[in-house]
Amino acid sequence: xxxxxxxxxxxxxxxxxxxxxxxxxxxxxxxxxxxxxxxxxxxxxxxxxxxxxxxxxxxxxxxxxxxxxxxxxxxxxxxxxxxxxxxxxxxxxxxxxxxxxxxxxxxxxxxxxxxxxxxxxxxxxxxxxxxxxxxxxxxxxxxxxxxxxxxxxxxxxxxxxxxxxxxxxxxxxxxxxxxxxxxxxxxxxxxxxxxxxxxxxxxxxxxxxxxxxxxxxxxxxxxxxxxxxxxxxxxxxxxxxxxxxxxxxxxxxxxxxxxxxxxxxxxxxxxxxxxxxxxxxxxxxxxxxxxxxxxxxxxxxxxxxxxxxxxxxxxxxxxxxxxxxxxxxxxxxxxxxxxxxxxxxxxxxxxxxxxxxxxxxxxxxxxxxxxxxxxxxxxxxxxxxxxxxxxxxxxxxx
Length: 398
Ligand code: FES
Ligand SMILES: [Fe+2]
What we know:
This protein is of the alpha+beta class. The chain contains ten helices and 18 strands. The longest helix has 18 residues, at 352-369. The two termini are 31 Å apart. The protein binds FE2/S2 (inorganic) cluster and fe (ii) ion (FE2).
């Protein structure tokens, strides 16, 4: 930070606020619109049904045609602007409930029952690309052709021997608090030891980690090393631009395989975030698999935001992993405010990952502002072991 910014609180506040903004006319909104975003669980929408989703401040009508193919369009009828998702599906088209105007999957109006046939040709609504992957529906709201669907992919989600589970929670705070939390491995030694210590808190321990960060082709690799005598626990987060944290979670029962998880911190708008979680659990025995399916079915509808008052009063869910860690993160992130006032915080040495993330975001916004190309983020081909125990002595030279 130079002398000018140190003595210009308004400029600092504006610069910090620019990081959080997601609408289409803002630099960060333009950065975010260059990526695919998960908007809904595949299981949440049946063929021939529609629902409203909100992404980056835009209300959208998501529907599945009768073939099962998902489609996405702005949720405003071109006629008198009512919400399109309240209408009904005919084949792959959506008909508005108000006066029956019908739009095909490209957004072209193809029928106006009260008007002369053929008079609808110049009328259309904007549609967006969608892509289904691993039980999630992703959308691309940017300009031009969408990027090849590659960055969100992980080898583990495409293995035949894993079970996939999907869930999401909507929290009343800005997306960047979630993204920054992902690059703050220290919080695990504190926030996840609060209220109830579940299997995650136990596995990671209260030890303050040594933190390492490196920018990769896909995002940021965060390594947290917790030395405990002769053995150290190494935990890697393969953080993927612009907000997906790929990590390992400990199993619910000792000896079972660790799980791999991608957490997508999807901006609904500037004040709400959709935390979409995709979990891969290695299939082992029929009984263990059934136990995992039961466990995730039990977590499916948990949303920490529904328990706001009790969580802030220190009452945590009696759950060993998913709901509990979610509740603990909820209290810290929502506790920062709806949009954290970053102009008044004090970053410390343990916040190096957050500082790196902000530098990257400012760099990408600056490229947008000056008409330069942004970084061509691509998937890391290698897949490091995300959680392992190693001899402490072997880390000294690394
Ligand atoms: S508002 Fe949609 S048909 Fe009239
Ligand atoms: Fe956390």
